[in-house]
């Protein structure tokens, strides 16, 4: 039986990130666009609330193998999101 040490785990996570391409996550944009098209006549604040709720229900929950604290704000291994819900 092989036992992984913390340094092995951290090295694996580091190598995973360093070998990943940096990507732009458009998942939130797609969700917001969908809601804004479905409810064009709703007040702006209502559309935003619906869009945030829809996003939270449908967004990809991304986590890496060997993570102790899991989760990521994007659907990508290494990426940036577009913050439509904060503008």
H/E series, N to C?
Answer: HEHHE
- Hey, roughly how much beta strand do the residues contain? 5-15%
Task: Outline the biggest β-sheet.
Answer: 2 strands, parallel
Radius of gyration equals: 17 Å
State mean pLDDT (0 to 100 scale). Answer: 83
Number of helices: 3
User: Please, what is the oligomeric state?
Assistant: single chain
Q: Which structural class do you get from the secondary structure elements?
A: mainly alpha
Name the poorly predicted regions.
none
- Order of the strands making up the biggest sheet: 1-2
Task: Record the SSE blueprint.
Elements: H1 6-18, E1 23-25, H2 27-38, H3 44-58, E2 79-81
Parallel strand pairs: 1-2
Task: Explain what this protein looks like in three dimensions.
A two-stranded parallel ribbon has the order 1-2. The chain is mostly helical. The model has no long low-confidence stretch (mean pLDDT about 85). It has helices at about 5-20, 25-40, 45-60; strands spanning about 25, 80. The protein contains three helices and two strands, in the order αβααβ. It starts with 5 loop residues before the first helix and ends in a 6-residue tail after the last strand. It has one domain (about 5-85). Helix 2 packs across helix 3 (about 45-60).
Summarize this entry quickly.
This protein has 87 residues and is mainly α. It has three helices and two strands.
